């Protein structure tokens, strides 16, 4: 689509996002229990309660890592402390910055396996989805459930050897668009024409897609290693 996409790079010390920019972040979420104990001090009481509801300890660690990274990254743009970030959730659960921040920054987070991705814009609504590629033997029923006629036609055009990858591409693009609008997976069959959408690969074995309500001019990708 002619948009300049920078390679993954370390973030600058001072974060700024310009009009027309889309920032994509990737972080690992496979942290130790000890690290999680430290990071959860920056989470809200609600987030800690959510973390405590995970039965699988690995899922709990991933959740804490992703929410901390979300806070820390937004804190970088807003020049706040991670613990001071206030979120508000839409009726369908899409988080955005609380009004007290008086900021145009929009964001969306997704996690799968050991990775999380975060998309940030300076205004337009954004949705992102990452999926770890796991060979599925039920792609056909899933496509019947989730895809509309146009997407089913696109899926059927993939040769057998590329069906799995094709499924993940269509799925992530779809979920990113739903998340851009802040609606749930229950509305999978809806047809949504995004202003802008693209795929990216956050790590080997993962695929991700982002959707933004309008065309972006530039995509900058940041890799924030845990420290
Ligand atoms: C949004 C949704 C598609 C995400 O699915 P998923 O593949 O499990 O998760 P992802 O990792 O891609 O995204 C999760 C993140 O998206 C964000 N999110 C949550 N709800 C969202 C929504 N409706 N739209 C956009 N983003 C949303 C959150 O940041 C969440 O991260 P968190 O779990 O750390 O809070 C799915 O949860 C859904 O269908 N939600 C709608 C539920 C609903 O209808 N609720 C009604 C009343 S609560």
UniProtKB/TrEMBL annotation:
Q: Which PANTHER family match?
A: L-AMINOADIPATE-SEMIALDEHYDE DEHYDROGENASE-PHOSPHOPANTETHEINYL TRANSFERASE, PHOSPHOPANTETHEINE TRANSFERASE
Ranges of residues in domain 4'-phosphopantetheinyl transferase: 126-188
| GO BP term, example | lysine biosynthetic process via aminoadipic acid
UniProt entry keywords in alphabetical sequence: Transferase
Q: Which GO terms describe its molecular function?
A: holo-[acyl-carrier-protein] synthase activity; magnesium ion binding
Family according to the record:
Belongs to the P-Pant transferase superfamily. Gsp/Sfp/HetI/AcpT family.
Name of the protein this chain belongs to: 4'-phosphopantetheinyl transferase superfamily protein
What is the organism field in this record?
Pelovirga terrestris
Q: Which InterPro entries match?
A: 4-PPantetheinyl_Trfase_dom, 4-PPantetheinyl_Trfase_dom_sf, AASDHPPT_N, P-Pant_transferase_sf
Query: Quick check: keyword Ubl conjugation in the entry?
Result: no
Query: Which intervals hold domain 4'-phosphopantetheinyl transferase N-terminal?
Result: 40-120
Protein's UniProt keywords contain Aminoacyl-tRNA synthetase: no
């Amino acid at each position: 689509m002619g948009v300049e996409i920078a390679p993954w790079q370390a973030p600058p010390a001072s974060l700024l996002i310009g009009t027309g920019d889309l920032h994509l972040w990737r972080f690992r979420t496979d942290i130790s229990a000890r690290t999680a104990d430290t990071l959860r001090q920056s989470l809200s009481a609600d987030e800690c309660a959510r973390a405590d509801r995970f039965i699988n300890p690995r899922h709990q660690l991933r959740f804490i890592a992703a929410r901390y990274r979300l806070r820390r990254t937004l804190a970088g743009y807003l020049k706040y402390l991670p613990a001071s970030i206030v979120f508000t959730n839409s009726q369908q659960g899409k988080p955005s910055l609380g009004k007290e921040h008086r900021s145009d920054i929009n964001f969306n987070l997704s996690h799968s396996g050991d990775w999380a991705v975060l998309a940030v814009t300076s205004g337009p609504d954004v949705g992102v989805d990452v999926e770890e590629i796991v060979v599925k033997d039920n792609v056909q029923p899933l496509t019947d459930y989730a895809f509309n006629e146009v997407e089913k036609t696109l899926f059927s055009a993939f040769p057998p050897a590329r069906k799995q990858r094709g499924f993940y591409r269509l799925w992530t693009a779809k979920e990113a668009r739903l998340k851009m609008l802040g609606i749930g997976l229950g509305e999978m069959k809806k047809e949504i024409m995004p202003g802008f959408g693209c795929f990216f690969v956050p790590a080997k074995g993962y695929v991700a897609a982002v959707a933004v309500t309008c065309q972006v001019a530039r995509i900058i990708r940041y890799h924030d290693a845990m420290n």
